[in-house]
Write a structure and sequence with these properties.
The chain is built from eight helices and 16 strands. By secondary structure, the protein is of the alpha/beta class.
Length: 398
């Protein structure tokens, strides 16, 4: 499977996990841990399960949301199943829909609703009678069970060997195989470089093969320095800097003090945050309850990175005004403009500019973290007295 498809499946898996936000968590049954085992019986859903190995033997009255390495669902489910993992096996009957993303997905029990799956190997067994539509995207897709609706999908190899009551539309496939048990009431439309392999006696409507679309030529990136892009970035940065000062007048001065007091710790904490924050956000999303916190963390992360040059330019502007002893003699905005223009120009230098931008991003993240730490120290304690503020932020202990 191509890199493009694998990337799409990864995005789809993340979207499945994000759908958890629409379910009221307060009334949910939550199970988490390395090995999650839900014994036989009847439980009220929705059921949230996260872990390395998840086995659900109970009949669930409601929806199931599961994320883990290996997910096995043996009980019947009256609602929907939304799952993301490496290996997903659903043996029990499902009265709602199935939305799954993983490496290997196997559907065995009857399904009253529709099926949407993305993965490497997807198999719909003969006993998995689907009453509505099926959408499957993967490397190898097997549809051996009857489908009462239509079938849509994309695959490297797709094998159909049962009755389909609706149309079959395959957007992109290398090898399409229709086995001897195939009976398609509707039409077949598929896009492939190869003719479909249709067994003798197969009953279908009209069969239409479309040729693959030509690959678009990749645009050659423009070489050289773009003055227009630099001017737009420059003007937008000054405007955003003015808005920050108008709405949060104490924000940037606090950041400047932190940068002057602790430049190296700011750089160190920023580098750590640059690497760890995306990983932490992904782990929080898997824990279900931590999804809101993960979204807040990612939004804050993106905002700080986007405004990194503005933050550091403000710091450098004050530093320049202090070095040349011009504080209070002319508007500070001029010092900011000079510093901001220098950082933009340095960031446009090939190769060297990349490292400059990384350093700026690390400094901006680190200054923000340590400024927040100092601000928390300045807040009144429970007794109403402000806690003492240390002269400098303690260095990370190695």
């Amino acid at each position: 499977m191509g890199k493009k498809n694998r990337g799409f499946f990864g995005i789809l898996a993340a979207l499945f996990l994000t759908l958890i936000l629409v379910v009221p968590v307060m009334a949910a049954e939550t199970r988490s841990g390395d090995n999650v085992y839900v014994e036989s019986g009847q439980i009220k859903g929705p059921l949230f399960a996260t872990g390395n190995t998840i086995t659900i033997n109970a009949d669930v009255d409601g929806d199931i949301f599961a994320a883990g390495q290996t997910i096995t669902i043996n009980g019947t489910v009256s609602g929907d199943i939304i799952a993301a993992g490496n290996t997903i096996s659903i043996y029990g009957g499902v009265q709602g829909d199935i939305r799954a993303a993983g490496n290997t997905i196997t559907l065995i029990g009857p399904i009253e609703g529709s099926v949407t799956c993305a993965g490497n190997t997807i198999s719909l067994r003969e006993s998995a009678n689907v009453k509505r539509d099926v959408i499957m995207m993967g490397n190898t897709v097997e549809i051996f069970g009857p489908v009462s609706g239509q079938v849509l999908g994309s695959a490297n190899q797709m094998h159909i060997n049962n009755s389909i009551q609706g149309d079959v539309t395959i957007w992109d496939v290398q090898n399409l195989i229709l086995g001897p048990k195939t009976m398609i009431a509707g039409d077949i439309t598929y896009r492939s470089a190869n003719e479909a392999q249709i067994a003798p006696g197969v009953i279908t409507g009209a069969v239409q093969r479309l040729l693959p679309l030509p690959m678009p030529e990749k645009p050659v990136p423009a070489k050289g320095f773009s003055w227009l892009a630099a001017v737009i970035q420059f003007a937008a940065g000054i405007l955003f800097w003015a808005i920050i000062y108008l709405l949060i007048p104490k924000f940037l001065p606090r950041m400047e003090k932190t940068a002057q007091r602790s430049p190296l710790p700011s750089l160190g904490w920023g580098l750590l945050a640059l690497i760890v924050t995306p990983i932490a956000a992904i782990l929080l999303m898997v824990t279900v309850i931590g999804i809101p916190l993960a979204l807040i963390l990612l939004i804050l992360y993106i905002v700080i990175l986007s405004t990194g040059k503005i933050i550091i330019s403000d710091v450098l502007g004050r530093l320049l005004a202090n070095i040349f002893k011009q504080e209070g003699r002319w508007p500070f905005v001029l010092a900011f403009i000079v510093a901001y223009a220098i950082l933009i120009l340095l960031g446009k230098i090939p190769t060297f500019g990349f490292f400059i931008n990384v350093i700026i991003a690390c400094l901006a993240l680190g200054v923000f973290i340590l400024t927040y730490f100092r601000w928390r120290k300045e807040q009144p304690s429970a007794s109403g007295q402000a806690e003492p503020v240390p002269e400098s932020i303690p260095e990370p202990v190695e």
